């Protein structure tokens, strides 16, 4: 199996999400970090690269320089794709530079700073014909995939009700006034965009609901809030949802739910059954029925689908977590790159990776949520793009 | 301690809730069932009374007749209060008849068929000066009381977010077309009023949220649905809430959440802490904090408040349930009756019982929920009465 | 349905278990407390009886006097049976007096102070032909009954492994040195017998294991301990078990497991499946399988057996607890009494009540446990009686 | 930070545990696989090495050859240590060969095939002065480390009771008769040693109990069983334990507990508090107290110790699992190797890694368990070595 070569933009020393991406990328030995522009501070980027055992010549302080330099390397040496792990406002320019230089892109979410940027990004992706992936991490969990497959197979019947929530408590106090760098940029419109809570976690919740149900949100009614005084962006939001099949739902995302960690949870109810998944114990999927016992499905069990099992590394009862879910996204994307190299179609596991349409949809969701919250009109239709 | 004498209207053979009320009333040996009009079918009422070991002369088929007959009995024999356990449309006329005949009333919820009736009922209660109680059962759980006290004491800080939900699955299919009598009347506007789901369980959720937080819902935005074809009343509903202190929230009630039982749950988040209670394991109350471990409080533990402990009958770890919570309402109401008899003020435990203001508020909630759902206007203010 | 009349010995003011028995007895309106000798202190017994609204003439201070006086009453007035809720050392003499006076007996456990007493009690029960029941409370839970039925139906296959545990923490400190009356008598050999922990809760665990599996413990190896200095009786014990079908097991009972409440739990594994039940959430029964999802069975669900459902009072999701389980024992025993009165055989629900053979077996277990613990011999056979 | 170079023996294509070790080793980017003898089948070893992107010259089919070849490489190229992931019977000879060739060793458990081998191994380790580590994986979980630290700090008081269990169900049927290679060798005395269940998982349970409590098992009483007909080795076992401070305990390990996965769990009770940890939800540690609420501690929370936090990679609520725990062992061992290279003492995190004394103790435990089970004598002392 060809080793896929990755470059990284962002994720220098001290950046939480950069380290997560690197572990996820390398977990299965299919992807090798070969270069990076880890910081616009040249010395910091250099130190980060050295700490990662990269040759100094492959460590950059400017992502544009990196794209050009890598493009000049022989095909067998240069990176295959760029992982973008910067704050939101750089997602678009870095992705654009990478694509224009001929590199595939795997980006952290949200895809861009605005819907407009996302639409431009789609044009570039489509015109270059290159691959684009997005780390909607929660869709990487094996039991989330099983949930999706069960619904697609009709086991729950016609979906009627969707409840998705993502409560956190880490912004219950004004962390941005201290030295919490992540809080600072996520609450800064210039770096985060028009939303903090919806842009950071609400968009995960919306994506999870759509991924699992196979439905699309058709309209929504929203109430976003900045509870902590002085904030320019929302730290909490709730919405009523309507889906394209007539189902209804609720989405809650919050960063001021004191004492909550990253408690993303999805419940779906059809006319035949219901399901329940939550990150707190991600290796379990609950199926509920009207007239027989609730079933507790567990990762790696023999009754799961082949796709689910292919996203698991350990035997049942040896828990997998967030890093493994994240790695599943990387493995799928690497599989797409490899298939492209080999001139074949990606297999099912590789194809199962969020892409540019999810990127656009996510940005549309964020903008619609903010607009709906600002409006006295009850329902706001999800626009088609 | 004086034994309090109770009459019952409704709850004849086969009626689920009547049996529950009788167990709850008698659980602590403080209340004795002395008479009843269990059914408007005289023979059925007679059989029910005989099964309950009542003297035939105290078993009636007409509640008006019962009021008159009981009123003629010596003070030491006649009932002290009437428990009303009929379908909704009879709550008001029975309560009115009882009050006008001089009897205190403890009614199942919702209090009446309409807000208008509830307002009239309040006038009657106030003009007669008699006692009125309402079985918002979930407020009877000891750990719900502890939750209320903790918030009142400021332990969670300023309340910002309230999430209350009550999912059921029993109406996911058209049960009303079969021989499910409860489904039939709850979905019949003539007997149930203008709402099924909100009138039956949404009102419980709203009451629980207000009881525990001590806040009042000030406005709401609602989306109610009748998912099962042919239904005239809602079987599901979700709303966005705003509270009078600026807190926000979500209320979900559903009868089509396939596989759910009676999973009422409340989460409250303040700027200092959060709490979580659910009926599935009612003897546990979770307190969450930003910087110290989540705490699991348990019924009967020594660190609970005196009021909480007074609502518990078993040592810690010997679970109590729904019947005991229900009994706590009865014991409180009986305590009010006894205090009235004794010419003293009720003690704290007795005073802690839903009353006529909760009755009015519940009906206002139901009507506002339906109106808001039918409207294209986003927010609807909770009217003052 | 004939109301069954009950007398009580023990359970005066302040006695925890007496109040529990009275609630359990009266819960379903089938049993009426008509007399009692609540304390050997005449004034205390009188006050207790008055608080229970008993006529003064039916309140006694001497249980022998009560037996004689009740026996002289007309058949339609005198009690049908005696509930014994005293400390252990009085179980036998009270039961003997009751039986000799012609009254059925329902006793708290352990049945007697010694195995020898239990064997004498069996002789008396058999010679009088009267009914004898024992409140092994945990067998009253509906899901425990379902567990028993599933195993009897072969769903788990051949049972191989049984793990039963009952950890408590209430005796982790020397409570007996303070004013904890229950701790004082349970740790006093004259009142409790030769064991505290095994006599109080170990015997429950052993009974639960045998009741659910339908197997008998054939031999055991034990290690009992008095961890708190100065104690004459055990406050903790663990054993290895062997059953009559070749299954093996472990029994743990402890009163020094700090922070545990009454966490009795049973796990059974057969060659086809496993089950798991615990009092902490008693309305759930888990079934585990090798090749399909774990199933979560819930009280009142339609897929349960008729016997299980007949032991439930509330709809699914409205939890039942310890008092209801206790009441199920009372209802079964009352059913036996009624059947005897009516000259018919008891129905399935009534027959499902621990009796004199369980009483003997329990005392044999306690004595064997203590002897085995004191011995350097590894295995000790459960003697046949 | 110097990259540590690892060689591997065993773990060729299709071997479950080899892949786990490789992921764990590489997870943090501190260790690089540079060579391996993945199988004694030369072609299979070659294919495995190629799949891992190793240069052909560093892939061997004979581990002795590997040791010699690597020893001849320049110091800056040859491996630092060997990871041994073969079936049990090869652990000793491979470790011996590696140590005699001058390489540190990190071995899967149990350390050897017999206690005698373990004692010889210790002599070799001591005489060579090289590093030896053992993958008792469960001690790698952050919350297990927190548990150990809390007990060491005296928070539970004097430890009295230890309950450790490891139920699995995968050998409930005769898997060894099919094509389950792992079942086949684990039940073959020539490859597995004198025990299957105790050698595979019982030893984990014993190690976990001793690691967390800081106590040593001083004597035990055991009952091992081969439930499935035809087996030469145990598939289940239970024991009573006594610890060197007077504490008592129970150890249960089972491979025939149908429906269980890898449900290792530890409970410890002291005179001040209790704790509970289980792999099913490994990011949670429960602390129980007699007079205040049970506390739920969570990975990555600010109130944890520095050592615990240093073993965590993700923010709270983003679960970590088995691979991360495994990686913590590798990181600690790599830290020891690096410290040795740098001529400094290992830091706290690196020092926290099972070593040769744990290896000897594990083999002593297995042999004592089997001997005790075969004996009619009740207690068997844990010998000193």
What characteristics describe this protein?
homotetramer, 385 residues, alpha/beta, Rossmann fold, Dihydrodipicolinate Reductase, domain 2, 9-stranded mixed sheet
Structure in words:
4 copies of one chain form a homotetramer. Chain A has 385 residues and is α/β, with parallel strands linked by helices. Chain A has 2 domains: 4-134 and 328-353, 3-Layer(aba) Sandwich (Rossmann fold), CATH 3.40.50.720; 140-314, Dihydrodipicolinate Reductase, domain 2. Chain A is built from 13 helices and 15 strands. The interface between B and D is medium-sized, with 12 and 12 residues. Strand 14 of chain B pairs antiparallel with strand 14 (294-298) of chain D, so a sheet runs across the interface.
* Count of β-strands of chain A: 15
Radius of gyration of chain A from CA coordinates: 20 Å
Approximately how much beta-strand content do the residues of chain A carry?
15-25%
Largest interface: A-B, 46 and 46 residues
N-end to C-end Cα span of chain A: 37 Å
Mean pLDDT of chain A: 96
Please provide the ordered H/E string of secondary-structure elements of chain A.
EHEHEHEHEHEHEHHHEEEEEEEHHHHE
Structural class from helices and strands of chain A?
alpha/beta
The CATH class of the largest domain in chain A, by name, is: Alpha Beta
The dominant shape of chain A is globular
Share of helix among residues of chain A?
A: 25-40%
Count the DSSP helices of chain A. 13
Relevant CATH superfamily of the largest domain in chain A: Dihydrodipicolinate Reductase, domain 2
Which CATH architecture of the largest domain in chain A?
A: 2-Layer Sandwich
């Amino acid at each position: 199996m060809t080793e896929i070569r990755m470059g990284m933009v962002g994720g220098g020393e001290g950046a939480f999400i950069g380290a997560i991406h690197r572990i996820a990328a390398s977990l299965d030995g299919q992807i090798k970090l070969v270069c990076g522009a880890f910081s616009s501070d040249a010395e910091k980027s250099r130190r980060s690269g050295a700490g990662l055992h990269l040759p100094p010549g492959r460590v950059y302080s400017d992502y544009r320089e990196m794209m050009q330099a890598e493009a000049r390397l022989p095909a067998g040496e240069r990176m295959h794709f760029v992982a973008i792990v910067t704050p939101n406002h750089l997602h678009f320019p870095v992705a654009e530079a990478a694509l224009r230089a001929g590199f595939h892109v795997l980006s952290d979410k949200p895809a861009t700073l605005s819907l407009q940027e996302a639409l431009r990004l789609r044009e570039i992706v489509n015109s270059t014909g290159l691959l684009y992936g997005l780390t909607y991490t929660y869709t990487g969990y094996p039991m989330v995939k099983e949930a999706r497959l069960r619904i697609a197979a009709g086991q729950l019947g016609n979906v009627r009700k969707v409840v998705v929530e993502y409560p956190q408590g880490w912004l219950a106090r004004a962390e941005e006034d201290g030295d919490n760098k992540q809080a600072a940029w996520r609450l800064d419109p210039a770096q985060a965009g028009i939303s903090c809570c919806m842009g950071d976690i609400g968009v995960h919740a919306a994506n999870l609901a759509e991924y699992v149900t196979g439905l699309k949100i058709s309209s929504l009614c929203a109430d976003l809030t900045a509870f902590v005084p002085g904030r320019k962006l929302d730290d909490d939001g709730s919405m009523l949802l309507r889906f394209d099949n007539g189902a209804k739902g609720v989405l809650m995302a919050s960063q001021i739910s004191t004492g909550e960690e990253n408690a993303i949870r999805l419940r779906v109810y059809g006319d035949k059954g219901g399901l329940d998944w939550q990150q707190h114990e991600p290796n379990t999927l609950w199926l509920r029925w009207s007239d027989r016992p609730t079933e507790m499905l567990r990762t790696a069990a023999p009754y799961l689908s082949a796709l689910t099992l292919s996203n698991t590394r350990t035997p049942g009862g040896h828990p997998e977590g967030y890093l493994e879910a994240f790695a599943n996204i990387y493995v799928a994307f690497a599989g797409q790159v490899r298939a492209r190299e080999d001139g074949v179609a990606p297999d099912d596991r590789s194809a199962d990776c969020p892409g540019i349409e999810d990127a656009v949809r996510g940005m549309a969701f964020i903008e619609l949520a903010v607009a709906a919250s600002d409006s006295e009109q009850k329902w706001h239709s999800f626009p088609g793009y």
